[in-house]
Amino acid sequence: MAPAGGSARSLSLEALELLPHTIHRTTSDHSELLRSPECDVAVFDATAELSQAAGIVARLDTVGLRLPVVIALSEGGLAAANPAWGAADIVFAGAGVAEVDARLRLARRADEQPDESGGPTTIGGITVDEDSYTATAGDRGLDLTYKEFELLKFLTQNPGRVFSRAQLLQDVWGYDYYGGTRTVDVHVRRLRAKLGPELEASIFTVRNVGYRFSPDFSPEPDDETPEVQEHDDEQR
C-alpha cells in the first residue's frame, strides 16, 4: 500500500515480490481503500511519506478494514517508529526475504489470537502497559522508543531468565535482523539510563552470556555492558 497521493505501482519492500503471496496494490486514498478486496495483512510503504505512518491504522479502521498493518520504513525512519501508530510490526524496507516473510506470518498469527493482554503489569518497580504502549519506573513515565519498549517488555515478561544477545536480537528485533548484536548493547545502555540509578541494575549483565531482568536486583550499578559506539543505524 502506497501513501495517499502516491503510485500504487511503486513498492520499496522488494523482498515482498519474491514471496508466494497474492499482492493487491493500492494507495491509502479513501476511495481506493473502499474498493480494496479482503486481505490478511496490510503492508504500508512509509519510506517516502513517513508522516502518514502515524495515521494509517486509523484510516483503515474508518473504512472497516480492521487487519494487522506492517509498516515498511527507510533506515532513517526506523528511529522515528512509534508504538502509538498501532501497527502490528515495522520492517526495514531493505530487509531480506526471510525476515519479511517472518514478520508477515507473525503479524497475521498475532491478529488471529485472542487478546489476552491484561493491561499494565508491574514487576520490580517497573510497570509495562501493552495496551497503551507506556512504561513507568516507579511513578515516573519513561519516554521509550519502539524497540526500547519492546525490549523492556520482553525482559520483564521473562524475569530471571538469561538471554544471549543473539536470542534478544531474534526475539525482539526479528528473524534475520541485519543490525548485529551490538545494537542490543546500545539499547540496554539506553534503557538503563532511562530507568535511572534506582532501577538500572534490574537489567543485569551475565558476563560472556547476555542479559537478564532481575526484579530483586542488587543496588550496585552494573557496568559490564561493552562500550559501543552509537550510530544512526542502531537507533531502532
Automatic annotation (TrEMBL):
Residues 118-215 bind DNA. GO terms for biological process: regulation of DNA-templated transcription. Keywords: Activator, DNA-binding, Phosphoprotein, Transcription, Transcription regulation, Two-component regulatory system. PROSITE patterns: OMPR_PHOB (PS51755). Residues 109-130, 214-236 are annotated as: Disordered. GO terms for molecular function: phosphorelay response regulator activity; transcription cis-regulatory region binding. Residues 219-236 have a biased composition (Acidic residues). InterPro entries: GlnR_N, OmpR/PhoB-type_DNA-bd, Sig_transdc_resp-reg_C-effctor, WalR-like, WH-like_DNA-bd_sf. This is DNA-binding response regulator. It comes from Brevibacterium rongguiense. The lineage of its organism: Bacteria, Bacillati, Actinomycetota, Actinomycetes, Micrococcales.
